[in-house]
Amino acid sequence: MVLPAFAIAQKIELTIDMSKSGAKIDRNIFGQFAEHLGYGVYDGIWVGRDSAIPNTRGIRNDVVNALKAIRVPNIRYPGGCFADEYHWRKGIGINRVKTLNPNWGGVIEPNTFGTHEFMDFIDQIGSEAYLSVNVGSGTPQEASEWLEYLTTNQPTDLAKERVANGHSAPYKIPYLGIGNENWDCGGNMSADYYLSQLKIYSRFVRNYNPGQQNADKMLKIAVGPGGDEPRFTEWTETIMKGWKERSWSWDMQGLSMHNYTVVDWGTKYKSVGFGEDEYSRFLKETLKMEDLINKHSAIMDKYDPKKEIALVVDEWGAWYAPLPGSNPGFLVQQNSQRDAVLSALNINIFARHADRVRMANIAQMINVLQAMIMTDKEKMVLTPTYYVFKMYVPFQDATFLPVTFDAGKYVRGAIELPRVDAIAAKGKDGKLWVEITNVDPNQAVDIDLATIGMNVKAAVGETLTAPRVDSVNTFEKPNEVVPKPISAKVQDGKLILKLEPRSVTVVSVK
Ligand code: AHR
């Protein structure tokens, strides 16, 4: 009897040549995104100073502690579509203005979490700010005054207002997004129209912080594509050509790209209570990230062969149907072992493109879409995706090392996927770090790992798997999907590892 390909347990051999180092895996590819959307900010981060939930100046302590552990390098804020309707003055001072949030459920936006609260939150978790300014419905003057308010140390009226509101030192703003999806929710602009706006905002929205005038200069990120259709390749062409032909008076350092794993925008799929068909279909879909990066990088290479402009994938992740009973505008979904595998595959794609992809922001950090954390009043639970980000911490600012392997195949119906994926890097700690994903939901995989230019003695680390592809952590059962220790055997100078089905594994090699 001939067994189908997926039923044959294959051994996979991986080889890492220590002499062939690549680009730095920028820690910023592990960035997060926090939009004023559903419970992303209110309840997720902000509970208010008078809350019974333990907090520091209104920001929940449990969430801060959890985020510190994954070393969040940057947070994109305040949106998203929300950013292009955001007016920062409504979120400072004693009298906050109540507005509406028409994009996300039409609820009241109290503006109690605003500029100072966000910067305090960033500070509490040890992260950096990636602010998106309002290009859709705001003005260059409004954005320019926000940056003056935040960053000048001169005694201007705006700076005095900041001091009166409790922050005497200028804030550091390392990353500035000029708009959001201005081809769609950000004002349905043509690429040419947006390019004109970009030039104006880039010119006038200045960072005055004395500490950010030279090496630590604020990086300006333009709106980029949201897919592979001709309108998006034309968008990338227009912005990159515009940049190449720029005058001294404006510049940009990054081009954003958005790509969600959806499968079908019309009929969204469930985030829990699914089987192997949906597992394989979503992973197939998520691997399109590679094609999209290749497509837009090729256009960028034409105008920027030295790769001065970073491709910033500042919205990515799985987008499923809202959980039954939730406000559909709040984008609440569960997060399963499938999402753990999906996030590892995407991070590995970013790492392999580290020379161009130097920043990425998963959507979104708390309670929204593919979140790290879910909260419900005083309760908090960490998701499988959270644990993947935790396991990948050693890859932040590590140096990429190519891994050669024949990935094998996992087949489900008409869907064929690589059975394993892997990356390696030399960490800032000097150690060799290896990540291996076993995509196959049914079979363990035997790994033989050989290193050229290093005598291996041991490998230890963590592996994340779960009983089912749709296993989740809940408030009642928070430890269904948690990493457990793993170690390799050494045999004939190679490391031998057995990886469980549907697993993500990170080991350090000695
Ligand atoms: O992340 C949710 C939304 O998706 C963002 O607000 C928008 O930019 C994108 O369409």
Descriptive notes:
- It is globular, with a radius of gyration of 23 Å.
- Helix content is 24%, strand content 25%.
- The chain is α/β, with parallel strands linked by helices.
- It has helices at 61-69, 115-125, 140-151, 157-164, 191-204, 230-244, 276-286, 288-303, 337-352, 384-391, and strands at 11-17, 31-33, 55-56, 59-60, 75-77, 99-101, 107-109, 129-133, 175-178, 219-222, 254-261, 310-318, 357-363, 373-376, 379-382, 399-401, 403-405, 409-412, 415-418, 420-426, 432-438, 445-452, 459-464, 484-487, 489-491, 494-499, 503-509.
What keywords describe this structure?
510 residues; alpha/beta; six-stranded antiparallel beta sheet; binds alpha-L-arabinofuranose
Short recap of the structure:
With 510 residues, this protein is an alpha/beta fold. It has helices at 61-69, 115-125, 140-151, 157-164, 191-204, 230-244, 276-286, 288-303, 337-352, 384-391, and strands spanning 11-17, 31-33, 55-56, 59-60, 75-77, 99-101, 107-109, 129-133, 175-178, 219-222, 254-261, 310-318, 357-363, 373-376, 379-382, 399-401, 403-405, 409-412, 415-418, 420-426, 432-438, 445-452, 459-464, 484-487, 489-491, 494-499, 503-509.
